[in-house]
Structure formats: C-alpha cells, structure tokens
From TrEMBL:
Localization (cell): Cytoplasm
Gene label: dapA
Top-tier EC class: lyase
Name by which UniProt lists this protein: 4-hydroxy-tetrahydrodipicolinate synthase
CDD domains: DHDPS
Length: 308
C-alpha cells in the first residue's frame, strides 16, 4: 500500500483485537479468526493485533508471529491490517516489523518502548531505524501511562519529516493540548488515532483519522457507527454515540486492560475468558458490575432474579 493510499484507507475504527487463550493458556487461533470475522461483519474498518489489548508482552516472539499470520489470513484483504510490532527490545521490534511486511500487512503499529524509559534522542534513533528497515507505513503508538515516557511532539514531528513511511500516531495520551499540537507540527494530513476512549470523538473533531479503541472489542458495531456518522456528516449521531458509550468505556477500564474486555467477551460467549499471568480477570465484584453493564447495553440477557 503506497503511503498516500494508506493515508486514505487507514481511517475509522481499527479494532485492537484481544488474543484469545484456551483453558490451558494456549493461543486459541480459531477463536481469533472468529473474532476477526465478527468484527468485519460488524462494520469495523481495520484490524490490529498484538497491541496492548492483545497482551504482546505475554506472548513469545513465535506466538506473536503466529497471531499476526493467523489474523492476516482471517482478514483476507477485506479491511486494512495493522499489527502491533513493538517491544522493549530494538532488534525484536525490527524483526517483527519486517515480518509484518513479509506477510503483507498494510501498516505496522510500533509502540514507544515500555519500561526502559529512553530519552527523546534515543526514541528518535529507535523509530528511525525501525522505519528504515521496512517499506510499509508505520503508525507510532504513544501510551505514556504504560511506557512511563511520552513521545514529545517535536520528536514525532522530526520523525515524520525524516521518515516518509511514518504516516501517523496512535495517541493514548489524555493531554488534549498535546494531540492538537501533533497535527499542528506534523501536518494536518498526519494520521491521528485516539487510543483514549473518551477522546475518540473529540479527536475526530480536530481532524483525527479514527480510533484504535479497546471498547471496539465488545461493541464493534457501535464504535464503527460513531466513525461512520462523523464521516457522513451526521454530527448529532456521532455525539450521541460518544455519550452513549461512556458508561461501557468506564467499566471496561475498571481494572487493567484487557482484563475487563476479556471478561465481557467471555460473558458474551465470544472467547474463553483467560489471561496469562501477571494479568488476570477482574475481581468478582467488578465482574458483576461488567455483567450489569452488558445487560444494560443489551449485550447480555438479564438473568432471572433468584428466589429464596
């Protein structure tokens, strides 16, 4: 996909699909393919795997490649495919990004390395080397709440200027001034995706390209509809959906993502609700709250009241 074409196609709701596990903790590739079919049938505009919601740090390098390859085959060219290829390890990031190109991914999403807290100069060198190792488009993933370092706007603008295949960023950054400055310094045609659920609509309003939202795992049709409404000029409908989704957004982050999302998908019968330690499902109290919210949204039937 040429960079200009990529900028036109990579828009809307790109769902960061969870990695399903079976009861023994093995990757459930059949469930992953079924989830992707459900997403595309529900109107999702693009598919991503092995991002934060996909528990990449709990997967081996080979498992990450197998998940990416399974997802690429399941997508089958119906929508753009944008796997997450970043890690704390520079060489592994390049290896995974090259693999994404090899299997025909439309772009790669590369996270700011987590835990090791690189300087802005080191981040520039890291992302520039990754971008230069491939020809496919790169979307940088900035999530300071997980990585303990923020990719500053000036660093991102320098990368966008020096690396023509760095075409966008997923901003999981609650600083709305920061995301405004991204478009100001990187250019209005730079792809800005929201990774903060409550900023999905506001980012569209300033010229954002879409969202890569964990909530899309549970209500892909609603998140896609919000974007469709915006792009169709139905601002009122997009605003209504923004507020309609707020309670669900909140409960899906009641504990660390993707625990609540996987619990919800388990209740909906989409996956076995299993995570790999050190992550786990939410507490029983929080699971009851998730269930009540799913019932309220019509995603689960209300359980009959228990009699004494």
């Amino acid at each position: 996909m040429a960079y200009r074409e990529a900028k036109e196609r990579l828009r809307g709701s790109i769902a960061p699909v969870v990695t399903p596990f079976d009861e023994e903790g093995n990757v459930d590739f059949a469930a992953l393919a079924a989830l992707i079919d459900w997403h595309i049938e529900s109107g999702t505009h693009g598919i991503s795997v092995t991002g934060t919601s996909g528990e990449p740090s709990s997967l081996t390098l080979d498992e990450r490649k197998q998940v990416m390859e399974t997802a690429k085959k399941a997508v089958a060219g119906r929508v753009p495919f944008v796997p997450g290829t970043g890690s704390t390890n520079h060489a592994e990031t390049i290896e995974l990004t090259k693999f994404a190109q090899e299997i025909g991914a439309d772009a790669a999403m590369v996270i700011v390395p987590y835990y090791n807290r690189p300087s802005q100069a080191a981040l520039y060198k890291h992302f520039k080397a990754v971008a230069e190792s491939v020809d496919i488009p790169i979307i940088i993933y900035n999530i300071p709440g997980r990585t303990a370092v923020n990719l500053e706007v000036k660093t991102l603008a320098r990368l966008a200027e020096d690396c023509p295949n760095i075409i966008g960023v997923k901003e999981s950054n609650k600083d709305f001034e920061h995301v405004n400055r991204v478009l100001w310094h990187c250019g209005r045609d730079f792809l800005l995706f929201s990774g903060i659920e409550l900023l999905c609509y506001p980012m569209l309003a300033i010229g954002g390209a879409g969202s890569i939202s964990a909530t899309a795992n549970v209500v892909p049709h609603k998140v896609a509809e919000l974007h469709d409404a915006w792009f169709d000029g139905d601002i009122k409908r997009a605003q209504d959906l923004h507020f309609e989704l707020m309670e669900l957004n909140d409960v899906l982050f009641i504990e660390t993502n993707p625990g609540p999302v996987k619990a919800a998908l388990g209740m909906m019968g989409k996956i076995t609700p299993k995570l790999r330690l050190p992550l786990d499902l939410p507490s029983e109290e929080h699971q009851r709250q998730i269930r009540r919210t799913l019932v309220k949204y019509g995603l689960l039937a209300e359980e009959p009241s228990k009699t004494a």
